[in-house]
Every structure is written in structure tokens, then in C-alpha cells.
From TrEMBL:
Residues 140-230 form the Acyl-CoA oxidase/dehydrogenase middle domain. Residues 23-135 form the Acyl-CoA dehydrogenase/oxidase N-terminal domain. Pathway: Amino-acid metabolism; lysine degradation; Amino-acid metabolism; tryptophan metabolism. It catalyses: a 2,3-saturated acyl-CoA + A = a 2,3-dehydroacyl-CoA + AH2; glutaryl-CoA + oxidized [electron-transfer flavoprotein] + 2 H(+) = (2E)-butenoyl-CoA + reduced [electron-transfer flavoprotein] + CO2. This is glutaryl-CoA dehydrogenase (ETF).
Amino acid sequence: MSTQTALPAFSATDPLNIDLGYSDDELAVRDSVRGFLTEHVTPQVADWFEQGSIPIARDLMKQFGDLGVLGMHLDGYGCGGSSAVHYGLACLELEASDSGIRSMVSVQGSLAMFSIYNNGSEEQKQHWLPGMAAGTTIGCFGLTEPDAGSDPASMKTRARRDGSDWILDGRKMWITNSPIADVAVVWARTDEGIRGFIVPTDTPGVTTPEIKHKLSLRASTTGEIVLDGVRLPADAMMPGGVDGNGRNSYGGTGIKAPLASLSEARYGILWGAVGAARSAWVAAVDYAKARTQFGRPLAGFQLTQAKIADMGVELQKANLLAYHLGRLKDTVGLRPDQVSFGKLNNTREAIEICRTSRTILGGNGISLEFPVIRHMVNLESVLTYEGTPEMHQLVLGQAFTGENAFR
């Protein structure tokens, strides 16, 4: 004789009961980050977006340090040593507030801090990482150049030896956090190949002008790194290496070193995109239930329900993919092509969810009184930075076929 237990109630925001797969500790981290953002960030972020700046950026970074989300997935040096799933859930909630906010945290932890953690000497780690984890030292990551985006190996920034010193010349573009950064991780071409350098931004010859007039990621501080005869001591160069377990990193030196940091950051993006899509979808559902047309709520029309259902299915598929990749990263590790799989799918689906949500809101969909248009234009950047959809298609195409079609 069989017995039946009551099924969990249907949840519109968790229809597949994915939360049942998370531990109490993972849910506590998620709820802590969500609560902080609800109180301190989300009520102001539309104004920051409209202004095109975050007036309290340095204070906010310190608050994120107090919250424990900066480099939270790194071990030691003041970092939390959290799991990949903990970090993913934090990224989801950060981007549900705003993609620029998640970028601010991601660049600090997964690009600047991870680069030093993965490639730096012990002395470099001890010197820089504790302050960065606390948010009192702000970092940025200089790889992209005006003429080197998808092909970073073609960078023109040069580092040449002058006695025991290094002299750096070049220009990096579209660098999150650079105008407020205390330190930049800069990748440059040397006679021995591409190497990473830790560059304090108060070094003579370093300027970090802010980029204005952008219509995406406006609640984010974006700039350049201009290097004009910047003299650095020999120990500014990172020696290179692998992370503690050697699983989730390309390690070593050359172009593989910055690509390892990009892979780490892309992992956060594939979670974050789910957060942006969730925020837009919830706004569309709430609006459809409240808005009356032709004597009935918009939610009562079949075409509106079809949109809501299709968006909900794609949202939860992306959510499941992030969950699965997070569990893989915490157990056997993630291959770069698996990260590409998640980044390609989740950013692509997230932006379509935002676009469809905007149609449900009609004219109100372009108003900053609702989060939809803000997420939609932010995702235009998220879709293409740290690897365009085409680049990730080629990564997967090579993985599926064994043929390299990049050139």
C-alpha cells in the first residue's frame, strides 16, 4: 500500500521548486544579499541609471565588502571561501537589482582579485587582496583595447624592460571601475609574451578618464586606462600560476592567464542574467494582473498569457542551467566551453524576456518607474561583453565538431 505526501504548492517565481535543491546556508546567503539590495540599492538604482553615475560608488563598494561578496569565492586573504553556488546566487540577486551593480562586484572579485589570486606572488596577494575583499581598495581589469576586443591576443599595450624596471605604454577601453580604482590589473605584450601587471592608479603616467554618453550600464562607473611611459618595479609583474585546486583555471602565463579570469567572470554573468530576466518577468506579470483593458486584466487575455508562459519557461530553463553549472563547478570543475554554453544561452534568453516584458507594459515599458527598459538596455552590453554571442557560438562549435573556425 502506497502513501502519498502533499506536493509543494505552485510558486510563480519557483515553479520547478529549484529552491529545494539549495542548502539552508545557500538560501541564507541569497536572502542576505537580496535583503541588502532591497534596502540600500534597488530604491536608488533607477536614479543612478538616469544620472549615469553612482554618487556613492566608493561607499557602496565598502558596504559590499562588509556584506562579504567581494572575492567571496576565493580562499584566504580576507575572502570568504564560499562555494561557486553561493557566489552564483549572489550574482543573480545583484543583477536582479541592476547589471551595473553586478558588474561592479564581478570586476572587483572575479577579474581583478581573481587575477591576483590566480597569477600573483604570495607577496602580491598579501598586499592587495585583503583590502580589496574589504572594499577599501577598488580594483579594475585592463584587457580590452580600442582595437582589440574579441581578439585580445592582438593587444597593442606594451611592457618593456628598463634595467630592473618595466615601462608600460598603451590604452585600455571599456573598463568597469577604472575611474574610481586604486589598482589596475593590466595585461601587456612583452618580449616573453603577454603578462599581467599590478598597476597602482596613482603611478605617474596613469590616467583613468571616465567614459560618458553611454546608454547601457549607466549605473556603473566605466572608463579607460591610459598608460604613458608608466614605470613599474620588477615585482609589479605577476609571475603566473594556477589556483589552489588547478581545476577551474587555465593557469600559467600568456593569453591563457587573462582568459582564465574572463571565464571566472562569465560564470557570474550566466547567473546574473537570470536575475535581470526574473526582475523584468515579475514586473510584467504584476503589471498584467493590475492593468485593466477592455474591461478585464491584461493577464486574462490569451496572447498575454502565452507571452508570460513562454517567458517563464525560458527563465526557469536558464535558472536550471545556472544551478547545474554551479554544482559542476563545486564538484568536478567547469570547462571553458561549459561556461560559454551558460553565458550564450542565459544572456540571449534574458534579453528576449526583457524585450517581451516591455511589450506587455506598452508605453509604460520605457519608463524608469519600472525596471524593464533598464534591464533591457543593460543586457545589450551584457550580451556582448566578455565574449559576444558569436564568439561563444564558435567556442561551442569547436567543442562539438573539433574544428577551429575562429580564423
